[in-house]
Specification:
Layout: H1 2-7, H2 13-29, H3 44-47, H4 72-83, H5 93-105
Helix pairs in contact: 2-4, 2-5
Length: about 110
């Protein structure tokens, strides 16, 4: 089935979830979400003042249940941190969508 998705440039259900989560994280990163989300995530440099390689990563919230791992606060932070090296979150939204889709189709 994955060969069929790849042949027709179609994302799997899991990749569609990742795609839209990364778009949400792009909007957070560029402050285009409603104001209620402006402080929803914390970057590591906001938590401590140490100059580290992870200072521009989002701090992963602690969750105690499997349901907590499905929240956008947890999964969004994980996905942002894992895809940040491959995706430029400072580009336009249209460019980000193309880039994310290309990255997801090549995995």
């Amino acid at each position: 089935a994955s060969e069929l998705f790849l042949k027709h440039n179609i994302l799997s259900l899991k990749n569609i979830y990742t795609y839209f989560t990364l778009i949400f994280m792009y909007k957070f990163h560029n402050s285009t979400l409603p104001e209620i989300f402006h402080k929803y995530f914390k970057f590591n440099h906001e938590v401590h003042r140490y100059n580290t390689r992870q200072q521009n990563m989002i701090q992963i919230p602690k969750v105690s249940t499997e349901i907590g791992k499905t929240s956008i606060k947890y999964s969004g932070a994980l996905l942002f941190n894992s895809y940040k090296p491959r995706i430029d979150f400072s580009c336009t939204l249209g460019m980000l969508k193309k880039c994310v889709k290309n990255v997801l189709l090549t995995l």
